[in-house]
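# nightly structure sweep
# worker-07 picked up a monomer target from the shared queue
# config: single-sequence mode, recycle default, output format = structure tokens
# input follows
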Amino acid sequence: MDVEQLDQILLGGAVVLLVAVIAVRLSGRLGLPSLLIYLGMGLLLGESGPGHIHFEDAQIAHALGFAALVIILTEGGLTTRWNEVRPVMPLGLVLATAGVAISVGVVACIAHYILGLDWQIAVLIGAVTSPTDAAAVFSVLRRVPIRPRLRGALEAESGLNDAPTVLLVTLVSTGATAEHGWLYFTGLVAYELIVGALFGFVIGWISVGLIRRVALGSAGLYPLAVVSLAIISYAGGTVLLHVSGFAAVYVTSLVLGRAELPHRMATRSFVDGLAWLAQIGLFVMLGLLASPGRIGLNDVLIALVIGIAVTVVGRFLAVLVSATPFKVPWREQAFISWAGLRGAVPIVLATIPLAEQVPQATRIFDIVFVLVLLFTLLQGPSLPWLAKKLRVLDENASFEVEIDVAPLESLGADMLQVHVPSESRLAGVEVGELRLPAGVSVSLIIRDDKTFVPERRTVLRAGDALLVVAPSPLREQTARRLRAISRAGRLAGWFGERGRESY
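# output follows
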């Protein structure tokens, strides 16, 4: 490839990226995961569309798909609220393991006995279509104000269920399950998940201490350090310990996201943009890999049957068995069942049989591609309506106060940059009523593009930006206090950090 070809690729890629970024607004208004638009762009650019780009390398698609999932899981872990995920982590783990196993079994039986597919193909289709997609779940559910434990359970499940399904699809595609048996597979899944999660926790714990103690030369280096550490968690777990890198990177990101790191908001913004880039590239690439010309009516009908089997029957039974022991009300079970969105993950998993040259792998890919398109189009827009009908909306939902930290090493202090969201209960509170720890002060307020030094009687307003200076040992206590008031108002000291909300 010469410079002229590189220039052409850069021009085309930049145009596609710009169109994809603008399309995010359209997908948000329609309540659809943006993957549908990006897959459509890939189809238009592909060999069957006006772009006429020929791409059929399953090995490259497989590798790049996994790389994109690592970035998406990193962003998901960093932006997940730990206080929502922690109480429901056991439920999310059961959904990601036992729930996936039930769904795979149901779909495989329907595919074999009703559709007459070979057992290997039936199990592969069940394994590929059963996991929920982190990108789809994160992008849709964070626009729907559902109860925190519901959102936490769905996000935890989507972050953890990649590991067992990747392993299952790989073993079935290579024929290892027939050689070693299901007992071997169960033990291997348990080892990879448990050790992978522990490895991720250790890397996350070490990373937090490292980032806090090392003063980097520029604020822009902190996001790069966080992403590098997350990738080390994935690659280190996979290469060194042969455990689930997906479980490791998600847990590492959860630990990093929970910690009060320097330039936290800047890091999240950077990783959020990186995740969007990964999603756009992933979905466009998968659209290029698909070929509408080879998809027949029979494949569409099979996709419909499999979609109903996995979305209605398999998912319902999986949630019923997994959530009942945790005494989850039926309304919440119904919402969890319908909110198990499929997205890029099933399509990426479908590239594994392609890369392993499994018989009928191309047909599996086409069926999964059609299934994802049809059922994402059906499920995504219906979630706000269903949440309202099932009465699982969080009526007291308020936006989390945004706190960023900039280190002031020479003073042994930190400057907290606090933004007051429109629905935060910080609005209306006087500075003196914040009751911040001794030695902490609100040094500046930015309001309507004007700055001023506040007094004790100054009343905070929605949209204010506060600069709070705190000694480093009091930084976390100060941040907790501000979040408490944001949730519960000036009486937060009576009700605790979480205020009146139930997690």
